[in-house]
Design brief:
The chain has 172 residues and is mainly β. Helix content is 10%, strand content 19%. It contains two helices and nine strands; from the N terminus they run ααβββββββββ. Bound molecules: zinc ion (4 copies). The site of one zinc ion (ZN) has 8 residues, from loops.
């Protein structure tokens, strides 16, 4: 019998929501909240509505400077909210479509495999485990993954743990 270590979901959620980057910085760009939708400042143009490369309309927001997405919304981990593909700054972010924010399914935890970075460190490609969002949807109740002890990594650290698919936690 593997010994499961119960996970305090409230603490996990709190750490995600109050993490240095996620919701805290999303709040900065929050313009309006209506029902299950939030309107935030567009990441790619930083609210100006202009494409910073072509000076035409920003494609991510259609020139409005604002984007509306479904809640719960988090800052896109892969592009860090910039709306641009990391290291290929002329391409829009493939994860958030340039908005700088993504909708996530609740409940979620920070991706253990990439530690919320949304990126595979070696390749700079979107993290396989969380598809670049930096968080992964989970089903409660949760326990620390007994195979990887919560690291989300397999023996080959470049690959996510098989048992938890990189989440670091498993549903009991
Ligand atoms: Zn824009
Ligand atoms: Zn993005
Ligand atoms: Zn990840
Ligand atoms: Zn695991």
């Amino acid at each position: 019998m593997p010994r499961f270590e119960a996970v305090d979901m409230e603490a996990v959620k709190k750490s995600v929501q109050t993490g240095p980057d996620a919701r805290a910085s999303l709040e900065v760009g929050l313009v309006e909240k209506a029902g299950d939708r939030v309107t935030v400042r567009c990441g790619a143009c930083q609210g100006t509505g202009a494409d910073r490369h072509t000076r035409g309309h920003c494609r991510a927001c259609g020139g409005k400077g604002l984007v509306t997405i479904r809640e719960p919304a988090l800052r896109c981990a892969y592009c860090r909210g910039s709306g641009w593909q990391p290291h290929k700054e002329r391409l829009g972010c493939s994860i958030c479509g340039g908005k700088g924010v993504v909708t996530v399914k609740e409940p979620f935890v920070q991706c253990a495999f990439c530690q919320g970075q949304g990126m595979a460190v070696s390749t700079k490609l979107p993290c396989y485990a969380c598809q670049g969002k930096g968080v992964v949807a989970v089903k409660e109740p949760l326990a620390t993954c007994p195979s990887c002890q919560g690291t989300g990594k397999s023996n080959d650290a470049r690959l996510p743990c098989h048992a938890c698919k990189g989440k670091g936690v498993v549903t009991i």
